[in-house]
Write a structure and sequence with these properties.
Layout lengths: L1 E6 L3 E6 L4 E6 L2 E4 L4 E5 L1 H6 L7 E4 L2 E2 L2 E2 L2 H16 L7 E6 L5 H13 L4 E6 H8 L10 E6 L4 E7 L2 E8 L3 H16 L1 E2 L2 H11 L10 E8 L5 E7 H25 L2 H10 L1 E4 L8 H9 L3 E3 L6 H8 L11 E3 L6
Parallel strand pairs: 1-9, 9-10, 11-17, 17-18
Antiparallel strand pairs: 1-2, 2-3, 4-5, 4-6, 7-8, 10-19, 11-12, 12-13, 14-15, 15-16
Helix pairs in contact: 2-3, 4-10, 5-6, 5-7, 7-9
Bound molecules: adenosine-5'-triphosphate and magnesium ion.
The site of magnesium ion (MG) has 6 residues, from loops.
Length: about 325
């Protein structure tokens, strides 16, 4: 039994054998501290955030792409595995996806969490490698491909050729920081304090980083910072643009930096193949256009960008011997 897990800061997705994606939920776990039992994972736990009594915790065990709460991460992985394959005696092989730049301690925490959750063997794959595989790109040829994966906690930029990373950069700056930037902007400009979930909704509806206009608007609700009372406000694409453009520029700069480190032959390939955008952040309106015009290389959003990495982790089982970089056989670790 083979299981691929995209353990993301925002979402956890699981693929199983050739069944494709069998689980797609927010990475949240709710835990009863009194009985030491998991109450809920995924969507059910997500609804409990900020609404639990003291003896229950509803948390995101990952932040910035890596495990920040070890025990909870383990509980979440094992609850998800049980959810998709029941309580079975055969212990699965797991491919787990990690950000492209990760410390030994961080990757070990990932591996241990998956092991303690009941896997027989754990492999790690770097997020950009999985993202390109999942986007349907053949990364085994001597041909350069570039991917920009923008998730909830990290943005990974990488150039791959012949199954290996040639140049890469990882920023701890992605969807969550964008939501926070929106909260901050609305608070400082309009003195209205909105929640992060509201900010995320505004991002989904109004983000347009290429040609924003005053015309598209929506209503947001929050608490007025001076009066202290609930209030609502109409914001437009321009507001969201002003709030997030600095962060988007950092993504563009990261892509430029990686291109600068890339050997010229591969730059030529990328010019022909285009840059591929994956992860939820790829859906930010106009991101592909602003990237294309700032870098001068065509950019396109992958089909179903949110699930590329998960699909890639599933496909990786067929290439366990072939992949070099970004794919570590965990038996190499000496425990
Ligand atoms: N339509 C959209 N427009 C803008 N952002 C979006 C859209 N849909 C999802 N997102 C954002 O994408 C992020 C989640 O993406 P994804 O599932 O790829 O992250 P992740 O893999 O869990 O995180 P990471 O890889 O950083 O650990 C969230 O921040 C979410 O707000
Ligand atoms: Mg991801």
């Amino acid at each position: 039994m083979d299981i691929g897990i995209d353990l993301g800061t925002a979402n956890i997705m699981i693929t199983m054998g050739n069944k494709g994606i069998v689980l797609n939920e927010p990475s949240v776990v709710a835990f009863n501290k009194k009985t030491e039992q998991v109450l809920a994972v995924g969507q059910d736990a997500y609804r409990m955030i900020g609404r639990t009594p003291e003896y229950i915790v509803a948390v995101r065990p990952l932040s910035d792409g890596v495990i920040s709460d070890h025990n909870m991460a383990e509980q979440m992985i094992s609850a998800c595995i049980t959810k998709v394959c029941g309580r079975q005696l055969i212990r699965p092989r797991i491919v787990l996806c990690v950000p492209s730049i990760i410390t030994d301690v961080e990757s070990r925490a990932m591996v241990e969490a998956a092991r303690n959750a009941g896997s027989r063997k754990v492999y790690l794959i770097e997020e950009p490698v999985a993202a390109l595989l999942g986007a349907g790109v053949d990364i085994s040829r001597p041909n350069g491909n570039m991917v920009v994966d923008i998730g909830g906690g990290t943005a990974d930029v990488a150039v791959l050729s012949m199954n290996g990373c040639v140049a890469k950069k990882s920023l701890k700056l992605a969807g969550n920081k964008i939501d926070q930037a929106i909260v901050k902007y609305i608070a400082s400009t309009y003195k209205l304090f909105i929640g992060e979930k509201t900010a995320e909704q505004a991002k989904f509806t109004l983000a347009n980083v290429y040609d924003p206009s005053e015309k598209r608007t929506m209503i947001v609700k929050g608490r007025h910072l001076v009066r202290g009372l609930p209030e609502q406000l109409e914001i437009s694409e321009i507001d969201i643009y002003n709030a997030i453009i600095e962060i988007v520029k950092e993504f563009v700069d990261a892509a430029k930096e990686v291109l600068e480190q890339t050997p010229p032959e591969l730059v030529g390939d990328i010019y022909n193949n285009g840059i591929i955008l994956t992860g939820g952040g790829a859906l930010i309106g106009g991101l592909d256009k602003i990237m294309s015009s700032a870098i001068g290389i065509p950019c396109r959003v992958a089909d179903d960008p949110l699930s590329c990495v998960a699909k890639g982790t599933g496909m990786a089982f067929g290439m366990i011997d072939k992949l070099l970089d970004g794919f570590e056989n965990i038996s190499m670790y000496k425990y």
